[in-house]
Write a structure and sequence with these properties.
Two copies of one chain form a homodimer. Chain A is mainly alpha-helical and 179 residues long. Chain A is built from nine helices and three strands, in the order H-E-H-H-E-E-H-H-H-H-H-H. A three-stranded antiparallel beta sheet of chain A has the order 1-3-2. Chain A binds chain B through residues 31-32, 34-35, 93-95, 100-101, 103-107, 115, 133, 136, 141, 146-149, 151-156, 158-159, 161-163, 165-166, 169-170, 173-174, 177, and chain B through 31-32, 34-35, 93-95, 100-101, 103-104, 106-107, 115, 133, 136, 141, 146-149, 151-156, 158-159, 161-163, 165-166, 170, 173-174, 177. Chain A binds a DNA duplex (28 and 28 nucleotides) through helix 2 and helix 3.
DNA sequence: CCAACCATGTAAGCTGTTACATGATTGA
DNA sequence: TCAATCATGTAACAGCTTACATGGTTGG
């Protein structure tokens, strides 16, 4: 059951509450989730695909020409499967923005142990990737970097360090929450 | 002359030195530029397109079955046009990773004024986007965030703040460099 | 000589983009 | 009533992914 990022984003939003296609478009249009496309040409076909896979159902209950999408049990389990995967070094290196999206959808499951496990895997992957970046800086290729290249590398490293501090803070917050 | 991110990435790498398709693949495979696909099915068609647009030329000088790509004057001017654009809020919100890529390619031009202008536009766009995110947190939607949503938002804000500190540092470094 | 790697290419299929198109509802 | 916005769709096209395919070169 492999969906695209957009498919999972829609599934995650529908796990929070049933919604119309138009309202989902507005989430991408008007909130900080703006990295996803809000064009009808992407949203409606993506929703159609979720319906075809029976991960969501389409209810025509509202005013004509307006339909609500609900997540199904199968959809919820597909979402949980996606959210439960440990964060890998590849996730950190290639699609860091998806990690925070997955984290925010973990709210729908609201399982303290699962959340802390997720954050811990994120932390480990960050450590590994930071090790790789530091090693790269010390390698032959790293040594011949110009001012531009060095500054760009430093920017990347600072970003991951910021993530690392955040993850520490987040783990602490969840560890302190009553079960 | 609108290329995809991959097209610009290849053009930028070729502005540094002529290279083979295979070597370019290895850049995406083996260095921190790993967010781009290194598969032959993406690289070779993208290079073909650059050749068709006469932004690069293909030289069969080396051992048979191995060919070098060189950037042309037209290619260099297309790259400069891309790099010279001011960073917008939309760039910051939707594709932050491209901003640092563009910065690192500014090395090929090596123009202090242009570089500082680029960094300044980045800084301004960051300020605007941070204002937007803070306003969102204080809005009705921001106030009803759960622990998960709030932490995810904080992560985003911290990332942009880290960029802001980096940009301040980078501007200072370039301002101090002898002309 | 054989495995591993170098080096390039192509074809099928899916996704997303852009642009266009339609009709309903709401507020001035 | 008229414009703006709500709400959904579709068709053409470009791009990337995956998988497959081919042949050259190098080192043990």
């Amino acid at each position: 059951m492999n969906l695209t990022s957009l498919g999972y984003a829609l599934l995650g939003l529908l796990s929070q509450q049933p919604n119309t296609g138009y309202a989902l478009r507005n989430v991408f249009e008007l909130t900080p989730m703006g990295a996803f496309s809000s064009s009808p040409g992407s949203i409606y076909p993506a929703l159609d695909k979720l319906v075809k896979l029976t991960l969501v159902v389409k209810n025509q209950k509202l005013a004509k020409q307006k339909s609500l999408y609900h997540i199904t049990k199968l959809g919820r389990s597909a979402l949980v499967a996606w959210l439960s995967q440990n964060v890998t070094v590849s996730d950190v290196a290639k699609k860091p923005e998806l990690i925070l999206l997955r984290f925010s959808f973990l709210e729908s499951i609201n399982d303290k142990v699962l959340t802390i496990g997720f954050l811990t895997s994120f932390k480990i992957a960050l450590c590994q990737h930071l090790d790789y970046l530091h090693a790269f800086m010390l390698s032959a290729q790293g040594n011949q970097l110009s001012t531009y290249g060095r500054l760009a590398m430093e920017s990347g490293i600072e970003q991951y360090q910021t993530h690392w501090k955040w993850v520490e803070k987040a783990i602490t917050e969840f560890s302190e929450i009553s079960n």
